[in-house]
Amino acid sequence: MGLANGHLDQNTLHLPPVDFLLDLCLLGPDQIKQDLTKPRLTAHDGWPFVTAALHQPGNGTPKPFWFLVSLVDDIGQLIAQLNRASRVSTKIALQQRIATTIIELNALRAFHTLPNSSDLATVVRNATAVASKRLENLMVLEIRNRATDRRLSSEAIILLSQVSDGSMTLSDAYHGITQELLPAVRTYWARQLSEAASEPDDKRFLIEIIRDTTLQAAHTGAKKALRLVDVLAFGPHIELD
Questions:
Q1: Which of 55, 113, 121, 140 is least buried, going by the fewest C-beta atoms within 10 A?
Q2: Measured in whole angstroms, how far is the alpha carbon of residue 214 from the centre of its chain?
Q3: Is the Cα torsion angle 166, 217, 96, 43 positive or negative in sign?
Q4: Residue 169 zone, left/alpha/beta (φ > 0; ψ -120 to 50; rest)
């Protein structure tokens, strides 16, 4: 963090690796506070990670960062640091994402609901509806695939039904459902499960999917779901209905 701030003072960006950001996301705010032995982060601690999360190629899904924002002691100062980073950056896409994020940070700071027309509110409402529908249809999907190569074992079906009825989390069931499947079938079910995710505990298996190089076809769904989980738990208020 000190290195990033030193570079910013010299009008250059030096951001932490996104893999480290995923490590922090997996820890969660409570564990981060315990490990750092302090209750809050300063804006100077937090801005490099927020900027790194937004610094994605093309239209890539931003990495989770709202969990870190929840630890920052002064959002106004965080906004000031992000503005500095934007001025230093030569990437138009990053500048645009920072500008949008600052609007969202101001809404969070003022305890305002994001307008329904905002990009983040639209994304979150749509993603929440899709995840809910995917969760409801997991058993339908299982029945549809019983006569195909994507069929599940009897043990996996029990776990899937427990996920469907809410008695088990997706993270707890993920390995039991997918571990004995052939690679292509495992990828299929990893994608289906990730697209049904929206709960805080789901981040564990979503990050595992993102880091698994054999599950490339499931990465996009897992990244979008991880962003949804992060925004719902720690981001600005969004009307879902």
A1: 140
A2: 20
A3: positive
A4: beta
Same domain for 127 and 176: yes
Token pair recorded at residue 143: 């029945």
Instruction: Examine the fold and report which residue of 75, 109, 143 is the final residue of a domain before the chain moves on.
Output: 109
Query: Cα–Cα distance between 38 and 56 in angstroms, integer?
Result: 30
Torsion of CA 161, 164, 166, 167, to 10 degrees: 10
Among 239, 200, 169, 240, smallest CA distance to 64 is for 200
Q: List the pLDDT tens digit at each of the 241 positions of the chain.
A: 567 787 787 888 889 998 899 999 999 999 999 988 888 999 999 999 999 999 987 778 999 999 999 999 999 999 999 999 999 999 999 999 999 999 999 999 999 999 999 999 999 999 999 999 999 999 999 999 999 999 999 999 999 999 999 999 999 999 999 999 999 999 999 999 999 999 999 999 999 999 999 999 999 999 999 999 999 999 999 999 8
How many independent structural domains does the chain possess?
2
